[in-house]
Specification:
single chain, 265 residues, alpha/beta, disordered N terminus, 9 helices
């Protein structure tokens, strides 16, 4: 992808200031009013109620995440249909906003790095959103993560993972680690690749991604002032693990489908 560098100007200083001027109050309202409201609705017995076949707890998470994306200027578009029931969703990883993009369409418990737990707001929301935290580089932690993933999948819940293992600069989709697919193989549940595409054909991936040395807070503030852009959440053809030999091939096939989707209209 021939994308502009992250350091490129994004509409000029005056335009950015104007975006902060109207988005910041919306963000504060979304946090101060919307967040307490959805937390109350997530508690039993309210959270256990069904709305069009979906738990109210899950519906309000989708609503809140979609609202947050729109405040940041993302025009959401879902392509394809997320599978119902126990599914391992696998997506390319660009920034912290990926979790909100996926949650705006489908409730799932994510596997995320341990550091996210300490991030302002997002870390707390991740904990409330059934996130499975993993300490990178620790085989003991990975074993615990796989065990928890297997338990949730067998109980009929969905799990979302970023098989690249970390965020990247947005210029390419990195290799997928095969071991994380073991839980889907053991639970015999489908794997559904999801392409997260910011801007036409992913042209804005580098703008959304973390810049070198950029902290979570700096990325959060910068994205709040970015120009409005599209955000496509593309649910691709699922993979039946019984039809593919070995988790390594499942990982390769998932990545291939996401790479193709990134270049599509």
């Amino acid at each position: 992808m021939n994308n502009p560098p992250v350091s490129a100007a994004a509409g000029g200083g005056l335009a950015r200031a104007a975006r902060y001027l109207y988005r910041l109050p919306l963000l504060l309202l979304h946090l101060s009013i919307g967040l307490p409201a959805i937390l109350l609705l997530m508690l039993p017995p309210m959270g256990d109620l069904r709305v069009r076949g979906e738990r109210l707890e899950h519906a309000v998470v989708r609503w809140w995440s979609g609202g947050l994306m729109r405040i940041f200027g993302f025009r959401l578009r879902r392509v394809g249909t997320p599978l119902p029931g126990a599914t391992l969703f696998v997506a390319n990883h660009v920034s912290w906003i990926d979790i909100e993009a996926l949650h705006s369409q489908r409730m799932m418990g994510f596997v995320a790095k341990q550091e996210i737990r300490g991030w302002p707001l997002v870390g707390w929301l991740a904990s409330r959103g059934q996130t499975i935290f993993h300490k990178r580089g620790s085989q003991e932690s990975l074993g615990g993560v796989l065990h928890e993933m297997l338990r949730r999948l067998r109980e009929g819940h969905s799990v979302g993972v970023f098989p690249e293992g970390r965020t990247r600069d947005g210029h390419a989709v990195g290799p997928f680690h095969a071991r994380i697919f073991l839980a889907a193989v053991e639970a015999d549940v489908p794997v559904q690749p999801v392409a997260l595409r910011y801007g036409p054909r992913g042209a804005a991936q580098p703008r959304v991604a973390f810049a070198p040395g950029e902290s979570f807070f700096a990325n959060f503030v910068r994205l709040l002032g970015e120009p409005a852009r599209s955000a496509d959440i593309c649910f691709l053809e699922p993979i039946r693990v019984s039809d593919v030999e070995g988790r390594r091939r499942i990982a390769e096939l998932s990545r291939e489908r996401i790479v193709v989707a990134m270049a599509s209209d």
